[in-house]
Amino acid sequence: MGNQNKEHIIETDVLIIGCGIAGASAALEAAKSGVRVIIVSKNKKLVESNTYYAQGGIVSLGKDDNPELLAQDIMQTGDGINNKQAVKILTNEGKKLVDEILIKELKIPFNRTYPDELDYAQEAAHSRRRILYVKDTTGMTIEETFINKLKSFSNVTFLPDHTAVDLLAIPHHAKNPSFYYLEPQCIGAYILDNKSKKVKTVLAPYTIIATGGCGAVYLYSSNPQSAIGDGYAMAYRAGARIINMEYIQFHPTSLFHRDADAFLISETVRGEGAKLKTKEGRLFMQNYSRRGELAPRDEVTRAIYEEMTNSNSNYVLLDLVSYAKINIKKRFPNICKTCLKYGIDITKEPIPVVPAAHYCCGGVLVNSYGQSTLKSLYVVGEAACSGVHGANRLASTSLLEGLVWGTRASKHIVAHFDPKKVYDFKDIHEWYYPEDGEEIDPALVNQDWLNIRNTMWNYAGIIRTNKRLERARADLDYLNHRINKFYKESLMDEKVVGLKHGIQVALLITKAALNNPISRGAHFIK
């Protein structure tokens, strides 16, 4: 057993794991109140997150709009199984926080029709134009601005290139047997320094998970490769309740190109008139939905998947140039530039697209303040399931949910702040390093990931059957056994930690899908 040196023990008031819009909103609110905040990111670049890649925009309220209309659209897309209280919070508080934090405080340069008038975009399943956007780089702009703002606070410490290994909880990690009579409580996390390969014990009376989603456990995903659902895995192992993991939303349109890694073609492209066609140029969406290209994501995704299957094709075409009444280059500069990099000029030709795993509507069950069922653990953003999205998410509501719940969680912590500790670090188990840890073989890690991603795509993906899901569970169970053995015998490394998180998440999704025989929203059983 490695001895835990005092320098590997860090104490703070609020530990935040992840720093997309949800983690950054929580950090900003906590920082302003003066409490000490540590933000952990497994990426070297702090901005790397799902937020950074969100092109479309963030929901506000349009000109002829109101919270009730927005709530109606959210509930309809979510197939009616949304948490009504959560929807009410989002629709009533969202616009106010967008105005106060993003526009006034952070001065996000949202597109405007006139200097004093915001421009609103249209997206699928919205009954109004109500999406605020910064060209097609909304998430990137918001994320960079947030990180720069947080760097100005002396009470905020960043730990980039650090991987969260596991949540610390009592009584589980306590040496003292009398702790077993206490209510289970999260008291921080074990955090791996990716450079030194040493594990730090970060102790905090309040922990916020903001690790984002899990799209990267699928073969095709619009998420960055780091989005493997670490938060779900850690919270599950610590005993927090996880729900709705079967509702994995697939984005209908990611760029199909062998060298393009997870590049999304925003829904606003269809909002601006683009039509979907087969490789032969045949329009098909009108055969699947009266809303055509602006049907909810799950319907568009299944339509594309059916067309690809029927014609044995690996992509369809998204044609903007034939239908656009806008200056394509000006409206979508980033999409234009990226497609051009791969030899596709979207001002002259259609874009080859394929569906990709995009968003998890389930997660760690939380209340209206982001509190999980484990004391002192808050979860916000895509890692949480507040119930806002029900069985399927309405476009551009995810950034708003991150902003609203990130802010609410820290407000709740600050209002009830109690720095009194129920533990001493001497009562907590040190991190155990195996005596003769083996070096990681990257070939094994890569192959395990390939197995996970292929299994999830083929058996627990867009269209599911009981047979496919049973096969997925059997294959993943076997792999889980192998990976856990590998984890226990290996030297500490972020790759093997990620693999342990990833297999756990793949099993959570598969088992949830098997347990739910009802096709609904993003969970489609054939």
Notable characteristics:
526 residues, alpha/beta, FAD/NAD(P)-binding domain, Flavocytochrome C3, Chain A, domain 1, Methane Monooxygenase Hydroxylase, Chain G, domain 1, 3 domains
Describe this structure in words.
- With 526 residues, the protein is of the alpha/beta class.
- It has three domains: 1-247 and 361-424, 3-Layer(bba) Sandwich (FAD/NAD(P)-binding domain); 253-355, Alpha-Beta Complex (Flavocytochrome C3, Chain A, domain 1), CATH 3.90.700.10; 442-515, Fumarate reductase/succinate dehydrogenase flavoprotein-like, C-terminal domain (Methane Monooxygenase Hydroxylase, Chain G, domain 1, Up-down Bundle), CATH 1.20.58.100.
- Helix content is 34%, strand content 16%.
- It has 13 helices and 20 strands.
- Strands 8-3-2-12-19 form a five-stranded parallel sheet, with helices on one face. It has a four-stranded mixed sheet with strand order 1-11-10-9.
- A hairpin with a 2-residue loop joins strand 5 (112-114) and strand 6 (117-118).
- The N and C termini lie far apart (51 Å).
Q: Determine the mean pLDDT.
A: 94
Helicity range of the residues?
A: 25-40%
> What oligomeric state best describes the polypeptide chains here?
single chain
Total strands: 20
CATH architecture label of the largest domain: 3-Layer(bba) Sandwich
Strand content: 15-25%
So, the CATH homologous superfamily of the largest domain?
Answer: FAD/NAD(P)-binding domain
Radius of gyration (Å):
23 Å
CATH topology of the largest domain: FAD/NAD(P)-binding domain
Shape: globular
The total domain count is 3
